[in-house]
Amino acid sequence: QVQLVASGGGLAQPGGSLRLTCAASGSIVRIIAMEWYRQAIGMQRELVARMTSDGDIKYEASVKGRFTISRDNAKNTMYLQMDSLKPEDTAVYSCNMEVTMRDTFTYLFWGQGTQVTVSS
Q: Which of the residues in the chain have pLDDT under 50?
């Protein structure tokens, strides 16, 4: 089994920064892709950023140039650096990882959400 733990959320002022962390533990052979999603109150969940094992990165249009997704392979951890935060970035942020495990099958695991609130 794999567990993902998301952390780093909190309160930030407009224009401020936060860094989210998603740490995976368990019998992971290879991480194929990792994603950050967010869901604001009354809104649908949306994909914020995605990174694949070959380095392909995609961002949701409204966060391009402000958010940066990265990973530490040795720690099975991914990050979301969020700069120039705006009130509309307020949401619960969740992470997932598509991983190959020792049984050679591929699974998708989710971490719990972490609240990000941008307000003055």
A: none
